[in-house]
Design brief:
Elements (H helix, E strand, L loop, with lengths): L4 E2 L2 E2 H15 L22 H21 L7 H16 L2 H28 L6 E10 L3 E2 L2 E2 L5 E10 L2 E10 L6 E11 L2 E11 L17 E10 L6 E11 L6 E10 L4 E11 L8 E14 L5 E11 L4 E9 L1
Antiparallel strand pairs: 1-2, 3-6, 3-16, 4-5, 6-7, 7-8, 8-9, 9-10, 10-11, 11-12, 12-13, 13-14, 14-15, 15-16
């Protein structure tokens, strides 16, 4: 059986002292205003190997301290000063300073390996695809909110490589009034899940909005983290979860939407229900803000060309508003 007794104290005492010392270097996981540990980093703690390495250094320090304390009482004050100096030196030891950098660098490498390695192991298509599109809408309604107050043209473009997509999308009112919008996003598809990071930028006729202004007090940007879970033909449901995490929404709204798809020989239908679970971006309080249905059908104009058309009936119960919107895609 291995002997755990070490000079200057047993192992459990040394680790207990190190834990107290480590608490001053690695603060408690940061909490958001709701009390949840959204910013907790699982790697902000000691690694066992590094802990043993530091324990060995601390053991030597404690051993030397015990030897110094055996001096005559007349030198006790000098010995205490030297012990304090040695303790401070151990706190600035590279063994302690390098923990956050090494662990976080290792976490980043692990993330990159899992992210890009997973795509490589799947042996998906390595080709880069580029797509452009444009929609004409009779009115721009987004999650039960009237954005443009009139007809709008909505161009978009995407670049896709493996399971990653970098895209841009915009909406510009045709009558020159109302809010215009230019957005950018990055998404990754993992099986039935799709993770998106969006940057919405809105600007109006006043011209006060500046694209590179990301100061939270003055920015007109809105950053969103989005997760979409999609079913299949046997289970044609989709669940969208959206969190407005920075920018023009100080309330940090949380939006959930459930959609059901149904295909027929005449047209494709979708029914949806969107709920504002937290915040006040879509309405003054929590509640349903986006309930409706959509019918889609391609109008055949020739053997080689068809025009996709969709019509949506949208109701916002919180605002008591109702819209009928037509969309033509190109």
């Amino acid at each position: 059986m291995r002997n755990n007794s070490l000079p200057g104290g047993n192992l459990s005492q040394i680790i207990r002292r190190l834990s107290v010392r480590a608490a001053s270097f690695f603060p408690h996981p940061r909490m958001n205003d709701t009390g949840s540990h959204l910013n907790f980093h699982p790697f902000d703690q000691f690694h066992p190997f590094q802990l043993n390495k530091c324990a060995r250094k601390k053991v030597n320090s404690l051993s030397n301290s015990s030897k110094r304390l055996d001096r005559p009482k007349s030198n006790t004050t000098d010995a205490m000063k030297k012990d304090a100096t040695a303790s401070f030196a151990s706190m600035s030891d590279p063994c302690f300073r390098d923990f956050p950098f090494l662990l976080k660098a290792g976490a980043l490498l692990l993330f990159l390996f899992l992210t890009f390695g997973e795509s490589s192991l799947a042996q998906s298509d390595n080709k880069v695809s580029v797509e452009v599109n444009a929609d004409f809408v009779s009115r721009y309604i987004w999650r039960g909110t009237d954005i443009g107050n009139g007809p709008a043209i909505q161009p978009g473009a995407t670049v896709t490589w493996k399971n990653f997509t970098l895209g841009t999308w915009a909406s510009y009112p045709l009558n020159g009034k109302g809010e215009a919008e230019t957005d950018f996003y990055l998404s990754k598809t993992i099986g039935f899940a799709k993770i998106d990071l969006w940057d919405y930028w809105s600007f109006g006729e006043s011209g006060d909005s500046r694209f590179w202004d990301y100061r939270e007090a003055t920015t007109s940007h809105l950053l969103e983290a989005q997760l979409l879970l999609s079913g299949n033909d046997k289970l044609p449901f989709h669940l969208l979860m959206s969190y407005l995490c920075y920018g023009a929404d100080p309330s940090r709204s949380l939006y959930l939407e459930l959609q059901y798809d149904h295909k027929t020989e005449y047209a494709d239908f979708s029914a949806f229900a969107g709920l504002q679970a937290k915040g006040n971006y879509y309405a003054d309080k929590a509640g349903f803000v986006n309930i409706g249905c959509t019918a889609r059908k391609s109008i055949v104009l020739s053997d080689k060309f068809s025009l996709p058309l969709s019509v949506s009936l949208i109701h916002n119960p919180s605002l008591q508003k109702m819209w009928l919107v037509a969309t033509i895609s190109f």
